[in-house]
Amino acid sequence: MSTYDIIIVGGGITGVATAYELAKKKAGRILLLEKEFVSAGSTGSCAAGIRAQFGTEFNIGLMKRSLDKFEHLARELDYPEDKIELWQGGYLVLAYSEKEWENLKSRVEVQHRLGIMTEILTVEEIIARFPQLNLNGVYGGTFHQRDGHADPLHTTFAYARAARRLGVEIREWTRVEGLVQERGKIRGVKVNGELIEGEKVLVACGAWSSHLMKTVGVEIPLWGEKHEILITEPLERAFAPMVISFSIGYYIQQRPHGSFIMGIGPENPAHWHDPRDFDFSPTWRFLERMSQAATSVLPMLKSVNIVRQWAGLYEMTPDAHHILGPIDEVPGLYIAAGGSGHGFMFGPVVGELMAEWILGETLSYDITRLNYQRFQKGELVREPAVVG
Amino acid sequence: MDPKKVIICRCEDITLEDVRNAIKEGYTSWDQLKRVLRIGMGPCGGKTCRILVLRELAQHLNVPIDEVKTRPTVVRPPLRATPLKVFAKEGK
Ligand SMILES: Cc1cc2nc3c(=O)[nH]c(=O)nc-3n(C[C@H](O)[C@H](O)[C@H](O)COP(=O)(O)OP(=O)(O)OC[C@H]3O[C@@H](n4cnc5c(N)ncnc54)[C@H](O)[C@@H]3O)c2cc1C
Ligand code: FES
Fold first, then answer.
1. How many domains, in total, are found in chain B?
2. Is the pLDDT of residue B92 over 50?
């Protein structure tokens, strides 16, 4: 018998949420290994926006469930509300062309059908509600009040703490060097040259996942892509929603703490498959492009001070959707990664569904289309509403 | 001195007691403390509080200060808080 029933590699939102959900289902002895500390990867560098304004029925339904979970998370995990800092000031999506405007409006129908009550706002209506905005070049926008933000660090710490309380062992500063298989099935993981045995192993290593999967000869099309972000000094609450543009690629939001956090998609991002190539250095070019976009749409930001700028990785897949589920070539091995710029907001629901999948339960929401074979079969999952 | 009254991070208003409690909860590196307390995330970028926290950690863990775990240093400019308009002009 193995030392552990389930070993989870990676302490980002995906890993800790799955660990918690598994422990809640009394899945046995669970070990989570993290090479640095919980939240050290993309989760800790993200903007933590959460929204149900997606374009496909599949994603809207999934994010509706995640929003429901976020709304009850503090209580469920027994963690202070004011730390999880759920802020539902809405997402305001702006359209910068006639065509984009038509597309946004057409998605609202699907959203309404699924109970996501997005509003369609004309330029005049936007100005009436959000007079701080400069709407030059804007054709209209959509707004959904339940969208917003949660603190990514505390959300992750909250899951980790709740998981520990339920008996999950979490080892930080512990890097998994490789996966170990034997007689065609998973045997465990290697740490400091030694085998730690597990009946099942889940790889939830974000952008580092494909590299680790290679150690058992499994090729996963997933890579890291550098995305930059900055934060300003805190101000009194001046602006409630997350304002975003899919076509220009910016997003800007004032956090409950008062700072404005904002990002803009990279111009020609490299695709990094090997962690040795990962580069987190901030660039001057980003500061210029970001400041230009931000002061143009929110002129009040002109004299606000930037206090920090950093870079993180989007863990991208060919269709910008997660890769989830069992790996057929190595029974007992699972993957949950590839959030592609929206892995934080899906974290709670992905954790819940992965726990069901790993335990062989019937999935309460069918996510099987997100399996890794879809790329070979050419069955990509398309989503029009992605940013940056 | 009362640890409740000793301010370690002036920017974010965090006391020695806050730091000690977080260390007790298991946040035993600069990076973790920063993320759980926001310590070091103020306008000065941790210039004043970082060393105080490292000293507290070293004492708690009973190791020399350079053995306290940190991630490889990531530079997070700007070195001094600067308004957005400065860069917006450059971008034109
Ligand atoms: C600038 C930026 C802005 C973003 N904004 C948003 C947003 O607004 N909303 C949203 O939903 N998402 C956003 N994202 C995306 C989001 O951050 C990620 O999709 C999500 O955090 C991924 O979580 P994860 O747990 O899957 O991966 P990660 O958080 O990367 O966790 C993986 C963990 O695995 C660990 N690890 C790796 N290799 C090993 C190993 N060999 N052994 C042990 N541990 C290992 C890493 O240290 C890391 O902690 C943003 C990302 C960036 C970079
Ligand atoms: S004193 Fe801590 S960030 Fe400035």
1. 1
2. no
